Amino acid sequence: MFILRGEGRRETARGRGRKLVTFFQLTLNGLAVGCIYGLVALGFVLIYKATELVNFAQGDLLMLGAFVCYMAVVWWGLDYWIAFGIAVLSVAVLGALLDAGVLRNVIGQPQFAIVMLTIGLGAMFRTFASVTWGSEIYTLPNPFGGVWNVGGVTLSHQYLSIVFGTLVLCGLLYSFFNHTRIGVAMQATSQNQLAAYYMGIPVKLIFSLIWAISAGVAAAAGVLLAPVTLIDINMGLAVALKAFAAAVLGGFGSIPGALVGGIIIGLIELYAGATLPDGFKDTAPYIVLLLMLVVRPQGLFGTMTRKKV
Predict the structure, then answer these.
(1) Which of 37, 70, 82, 149 is deepest in the core (most CB within 10 A)?
(2) Is 267 in contact with 224 (CB distance < 8 Å)?
(3) DSSP state of 71
(4) CB burial class (10 A; 0-12, 13-18, 19+) of residue 160?
(5) What is the dihedral of CA 121, 254, 223, 130, to 10 degrees?
(6) How confident is the model at residue 306 (pLDDT cuts 50, 70, 90)?
(7) Angle at CA 264, nearest 5°, toward 233 and 277?
(8) 3-state helix/strand/coil string of 82-150
(9) What span, in angstroms and rounded, lies between the C-alpha atoms of 208 and 41?
């Protein structure tokens, strides 16, 4: 009888250990996925803070970044890191051209017209990708193929590279916005465009730079995500929807909120997929978002603004 109770305790201990390992595994994977959502949400927020526009083509810029990196590595035979830089730089230039050649001409138009324009641009990008690279699914060769095992938890180098890459990008953006003249000018422009113009800041150029940074960050997210989800012309759609939810959850207009919202959405998605019935993995983040909008409409880090009429 004593032996049976001991066996039962050991089984219980093993069960708790497995649950703990599963929890840490889901947390690590959810953190990595959430970092991607956070980076794309960061692009939404940067453009919105400066221009009060929402770019629904953000996910398709992510897709273009992944395809350009694939082309540079596989077709041209370039080193992964050089291809990474080419992808980020080329999509950043595309973002600046979009602002200068398209979006700047529709400033002052109704918001729904601009929303439809960015949705149409996203469709054009997907068509361009389909014509250029085909509709097949591609695998991006990368240097992150190994794994570590720590106490039963598998630490994939690909997931760790996403977390590390996000930290590096956030650090670079923080330093840029707070310790460079252009970054400070961008902050001033996002707070008051007219005052910034009277202070001699080239507002139009600043807008183009913000679009370039936003597009470049999306491209970096696409390259980091490519080894996990593979590359196809629709890879940016689902990511963009979750990233938009992350931006709203964190508080649209808040840069820290975009990252925190992305991580929360990523964790909820992974936890729901492992513990709830099929179908809840994709809907659970939106259920949480709806609850947040009911309780705190401005999001976690947003501020409520009121207008007197």
Answers:
(1) 37
(2) no
(3) I
(4) middle
(5) -10
(6) low
(7) 75
(8) HHHHHHHHHHHHHHHHHHHHCHHHHCCCCHHHHHHHHHHHHHHHHHHHHHHHCCCCECCCCCCCCEEEE
(9) 18
Transcribe 210-242 into DSSP letters.
HHHHHHHHHHHHHHHHHHHH-B-TTHHHHHHHH
Phi, psi of 105, rounded to the nearest 5 degrees = -80, -10
Segment 28-50, tens digit of pLDDT = 888 988 998 988 888 888 888 87
Phi/psi of residue 22, nearest 5 degrees = -60, -40
Residue type, 219: A
Side-chain-side CA neighbours of 242 within 13 Å: the count stands at: 29
Residue type, 235: M
What is d(CA 39, CA 160) in angstroms, rounded to the nearest whole number? 15
For residue range 99-146, list pLDDT tens digits in order.
888 888 877 777 788 888 899 999 999 999 999 998 889 988 888 878
* CB proximity list for 145: less than 8 A, separation 6 or greater: 157, 158
Alpha-carbon gap, residue 255 to 286, rounded angstroms: 20
What SS3 state is found at 296?
coil
State the amino acid at position 244 in one-letter form. Answer: F
SS3 of residue 253 by DSSP: coil
pTM of the model: 0.86
Q: Whose CA is closest to 236, among 101, 128, 117?
A: 128
- Of 273, 213, 131, 287, the closest CA to residue 221 belongs to 213
Q: Are residues 72 and 87 in contact, defined by beta-carbon separation less than 8 angstroms?
A: yes
DSSP state of 13: H
Helix (H) or strand (E) holding 249: helix 235-250
The residue written with tokens 């953006």 in the block is 173
Classify 202 as helix, strand or coil.
coil
Hey, is 301 helix, strand or coil? coil
The pLDDT tens digits of the residues spanning 1-19 come to 444 555 566 657 777 777 7
- Residues present in the chain in total: 309
